[in-house]
Amino acid sequence: MKINKSHSVARRTAFVLFVTAVFSSCLVFGQSSLTPDVVPTSSYAARANAVMPSANVIVFPFWSVDEGLFRGSDALKATSLNNQKLQQLDSLLVVLHRANNLPIAGYYHQFISAIDSKGHKLVYVNGFCRVDSSEWWKSHLYQVKGGGACYYDVVVSLSTGQYSNFRINAPK
Predict the structure, then answer these.
(1) What is the value of pTM for the model shown?
(2) What pLDDT, in 10s, does the model give residues 68-111?
(3) Phi, psi (deg, nearest 5) at residue 74
(4) How far apart are CA 130 and CA 56, in angstroms?
(5) Are 140 and 47 in contact (CB under 8 A)?
(6) Are 81 and 123 in contact (CB under 8 A)?
(7) What pLDDT, in 10s, does the model give residues 143-168?
(8) What whole-number distance in Å separates Cα of residue 126 and Cα of residue 16?
(9) Which of 66, 172, 75 is nearest to 125 (CA)?
């Protein structure tokens, strides 16, 4: 049986172009910036329009898929955090850290704020004391398995000054 090399090369080239096109479209889709009319399917998708008030704090916009992070709150709507609310939140986190024997300094925080059906301003707080060398945590919710007290999350009510749903990761 005689093999037609030009036909084989053409098929290989077509296959490589197809795989490249599919792979490239996945990369572009995965890194696309989200506009308000695009609804993400996961809280862990890349987040555009984040605000970084300090080197270790980032504030993400609220998405409807984030409701599960607020565990038990209903009819949530997006809201923002001004400097006064950020200072209030920082003070409440100091109290939370002391009450749970966590070091006050050295944590990174990701915030997502929302208003519930009662008009309470709530903030989902994702706290962690270590990040890898990448900038990934500035555009995605930083979630790990294990790690103990280095990783926690909590919902803080700026309206009442109380927190709920406090969870520290398991040790391993």
Answers:
(1) 0.73
(2) 899 888 789 999 999 999 999 999 999 999 999 999 889 999 99
(3) -125, 160
(4) 11
(5) yes
(6) yes
(7) 888 888 899 999 999 999 999 999 99
(8) 42
(9) 66
